[in-house]
Amino acid sequence: MPMHPLNWTAGWSLILAGFVVGAGLGLGFHRQDFWGGYDSFRRRLVRLGHIALEALGLLNLLFALSPWPRPDTWWSAAASPCFVVGGVAMPCVCFLAAWRKPFRHLFPVPVLALVLAVAFTLAGGGR
């Protein structure tokens, strides 16, 4: 079966990073005031970054193991790095925005990368 090795490696790496970040978050989650409390902007963004690591890691794995688009096509060559950029940039922007609010303006970067990744995948599907 054809495979996208970049996305396979990125997927498992993102999942591992999500486990490590989750373990770190688990050290303080029991405290009511942890990072400003459960509903604080900072804590919500860190939780979003954590789940983005896991979910986008799985999405990269799904793409890596998907037969379409075939790895030797233009569509695949375009989609593959977009999935990786989106998978890395989304949690990074979440964590940066939790640290300093103005970083929230960077969210279009991972969103655009992921939208392009899916569009390229759909366009190259079945060809």
Describe the structure.
The chain has helices at residues 5-26, 41-65, 74-99, 108-124. With 127 residues, the chain is mainly α. The chain has one domain. α1 packs antiparallel against α2 (41-65) and α1 runs parallel beside α3 (74-99).
Order of helices and strands: HHHH
Poorly predicted segments: none
Report the strand count: 0
Helical amount: over 70%
Mean pLDDT: 93
Structural class of the secondary structure composition?
Answer: mainly alpha
Shape type: elongated
- State Rg: 16 Å
In percent terms, what proportion of residues is strand?
under 5%
The tally of helices reads 4
Q: What is the rounded distance between the termini? A: 16 Å
* Biggest β-sheet description: none
How many domains? The number is: 1
Query: Which oligomeric state applies?
Result: single chain
Structural features:
127 residues; 4 helices; mainly alpha
Helix/strand layout:
Elements: H1 5-26, H2 41-65, H3 74-99, H4 108-124
Helix pairs in contact: 1-2, 1-3, 2-3, 3-4
Describe what is shown at a glance.
The protein is mostly helical. The chain contains 4 helices and no strands.
